[in-house]
Structure formats: C-alpha cells, structure tokens
Amino acid sequence: RPVTALEVDWATWQAMSCSVDRSIILWDLEMGEPITKFQEHPGTISCLSVDWLGRRMCSGAGPGDNCIRLWDFSDGYCDKEIEGHEGAVWACNADWAAAHRALAQQQGVGFDADD
Hints:
Elements: E1 3-9, E2 14-19, E3 24-28, E4 33-38, E5 45-51, E6 56-61, E7 68-72, E8 77-82, H1 96-107
Antiparallel strand pairs: 1-2, 2-3, 3-4, 5-6, 6-7, 7-8
C-alpha cells in the first residue's frame, strides 16, 4: 500500500510512516525493520507530524475518519481524538518547540522570560 507521509529522525535512525492501509509504523532504519505499528484510524492516514524529543505525534486521516489523533508513541497510546471536519484531513504540522516551551513554563523549569 502507498505511503502517504514520512518523517525521519537521523539522530536516532528512526522514521515514522503512514499509509493508505490505515497504519502508522515506527521504523528502525539501521535494521530496516518496524519497531511499532499503530492502528487506531478507521480511514486512510494522509499526514503526520512527529515530536522526536517528546515521543509524540499527530496524525490526520481521510475518508471514513476525517479526524486528527494525538499520540504518545513511547507507549503507543492515542491521547486524544479530535473530530469535527466534514472532509479528509490532508495535512498537519505542529510547532513542537513551542509545545516544549509551554510545558517548561507550566512546570516552572527552563523558562526564559525573553522567549
């Protein structure tokens, strides 16, 4: 089945791919083998955005689904499902650096007032 999106983290030699077969796969690029497979979307997964540092991702799907899912891929758990689109979600992009800053500020660590 065709792969619809791919993100690579060269620091860890891992990649995340999504496909029309309704799966997301975390890959070990050195071994060329899958590490984990995620299958929560009932529709074709068209996009993803990965936070390699925080081990999170968001994914969007098309026909039969039309929602966005937020994941903690360190444990394979789908944290949240966001519904509301009448059509397919074809693209997603997250500002993970801003998410890290907001979390640090919330926890009172590493926050620089000039940011």
